[in-house]
Amino acid sequence: MLRNYLSRHANKYASKWLVLLIDALIIGVSFVLSYIIRFNLTFDFDVEKLLVQLPTVTLIAALAFVFTGSHKGFVRHTGIKDVYNIFNAICLSSIFTIFVIILNRQFEVIEGFTIPLSIIIIHSLISFITLTAARYVFKTLFEGMTKKFKAVKNVLIYGAGESGIIAYNALTSHTASNTRVLGYIDDDKKKMGKTINGIKVYRRDSISEYFLAGNNISAIIVAIHNIDNNKLRSLVEGLVDFPIEVKIVPPVQDWINGEFKFSQIKNVQIEDLLNRVPINIRKSKVADELKGKSIMVTGGAGSIGSEIVRQIASYDYKSLIIIDQAESPLYDLQQELKQNGHHNFVPIVADIRDKNRMSMFFEEHKPDILFHAAAYKHVPLMEYNAYEAIKINIGGTKTIADLSIAHQVGKFVFVSTDKAVNPTNVMGATKRIAEMYISCMQQQGKTKFITTRFGNVLGSNGSVIPLFKKQIEKGGPLSVTHKDITRYFMTIPEASQLVLEAGSMGNGGEIFIFDMGDSVRIFDLAKNMIKLSGLRYPEDIDIEITGLRPGEKLYEELLANGENTLPTYNKKIMISKVRDLDYGMVRSKIDELCLSNIFFNENTIKIMKEIVPEYVSNNSNLCKFDKVSSETVESGKEEDEKIKIVHS
């Protein structure tokens, strides 16, 4: 019955007039107590005078409450500002009372209304303490009564510093929260064994599965100010072995209006654990490059292309042309840009392989800078759809590059991939051939052709992390192609920033390489994702080894054999020093390849392998086109497992 009553009335608040009435009664009681205390806890004072003074003092206090608005606060949400308002009201009330006493001495309006100064001081102190205490008592009782009938989640806070205390206050002050903080964890020996707000600080090594189970701990919240990725990864990897959720307090710069809210506590994402140090971009250089320019983005509705568009939209450009053949994603991006107040853009549904139509857009919009992100990128799919991969990744790039020269585009920035390095699949080979064609075009005309090359992006369409999340939601198992397979990762915003930076710093002919940190073992990534979901491997969700897919490598590389790097002003961005090309032969072979592809000729694969001699198919039926023997191919596979990935 009590539970039903609380559920019905939990969202109702006491009337401000009821609060004012209760406050006035507290003032009256406090005034009587002040007399009793002043006369040594006896009644050796004139009670009749007290009864004359009591209504006047109470009325003056009530007027002070109305003037300061102290009765308007929500009692169940009482905070420091409410206490400050009470203090102001009491001070104002005392001043009014003294003023009335002085006036009464002159005009004797109220007979016997003379209150000793000591009584006024004592009354002020008692009133302030009583009013404040009453609010906090009510707040505590209300929280206790409401939470008593909720399923309470016991948590620990990792970090007994300032961020940990702020997190504790946010958790305990939020009435909708059913969270109870049972303790802090900290590595500082000076804090161990002590208490903060009555909550004990534990040593890290005292946290065991027995301790967590015995106290019914359901989550540990990491609240450490400015924690770096390496420390966070080490810390979380030590916690995810326990059958609990691991949550994190976001950095101070992400707090809403500088204040931390209960709702901002989030589950640790796998992205937080990857060894990624955010790139430092010279925004002013990018801003100067884009200012007043007409900018075209192909593949503008894709994972990378759409983020490039979002970032460009924040600059002072002249016009932004977004081209993509995927209608629905382009429509979604259009609506997003409009809702964010951006209107100076033109979304175009078009196929970049349609040279006549694309020429019309170049003629109409006259782009100064072009970001070419349109491509097919899925390795296994393209292995069996080589025709489409060649047509879009090579033919489409060729069309856009040729039109850029014909229409005197200032800069052409090409988005490539680490799979173009020593390719073992059709997709990687087509991107490498596109890179080579870009290099050929650099020798023509005035257009500056720039290439960016990076690895996998977190959260892109079809990438491994969204796939694992879907598999976890379905109860598993998680599918990993090989136990030793590794990949480089970066975030979509970082990848897009790199592309913009390449466009601003490039002078033409460069291939920009991004220092992507350490490669990540996909099997370990899968295990951590299971644990971060509060599940156990392999008891709750298992990992299934499915075998390498057609064209898939164990390791990705950022540089091909014979390539070196040159530094730039940003230590995270390097320029690849590529091998010299026979530009005449390469252009001739690419023209032959595109022509052969029109007729669905099997020779297309042979021509690709002639253009890119290092292209050796792996785990694919296209291995038959390699000039090496099957024994050499097998030896190459074994050697592939020993490759040391090249990075700075």
Summarize the structure in words.
It is a single chain. This protein is α/β, with parallel strands linked by helices and 648 residues long. The protein has three domains: 2-146, no CATH class; 151-268, 3-Layer(aba) Sandwich (Rossmann fold); 283-457 and 490-516 and 557-640, NAD(P)-binding Rossmann-like Domain (Rossmann fold). The strands form five sheets. It has a nine-stranded mixed sheet, with helices on both faces. Strand 1, helix 6 and strand 2 form a beta-alpha-beta unit. Helix 20 runs antiparallel to helix 21. Residues 5-11 and 628-648 have low confidence and may be disordered.
Briefly characterize the structure:
With 648 residues, the chain is of the alpha/beta class. It contains 22 helices and 22 strands. The strands form five sheets. The chain has a nine-stranded mixed beta sheet with strand order 10-9-8-11-12-13-18-22-21, with helices on both faces. Strands 3-4-2-1-5-6-7 form a seven-stranded mixed beta sheet. It has a two-stranded parallel ribbon with strand order 14-17.
Question: Which structural class do you get from the secondary structure elements?
Answer: alpha/beta
CATH C-level class of the largest domain: Alpha Beta
Radius of gyration: 35 Å
The domain count comes to 3
In helices, the fraction of residues equals 40-55%
* Integer average pLDDT: 81
C-alpha end-to-end distance:
68 Å
CATH architecture of the largest domain: 3-Layer(aba) Sandwich
Q: How many helices in DSSP terms?
A: 22
Identify low-pLDDT runs.
Answer: 5-11, 628-648
Instruction: Kindly state the number of beta strands.
Output: 22
- Give the neighbour order of strands across the main sheet: 10-9-8-11-12-13-18-22-21
CATH topology of the largest domain: Rossmann fold
> Judging from the principal axes of the Cα atoms, what is the shape?
elongated
How would you sum up the major sheet? Answer: 9 strands, mixed
Q: How would you name the CATH homologous superfamily of the largest domain?
A: NAD(P)-binding Rossmann-like Domain
Strand content: 5-15%
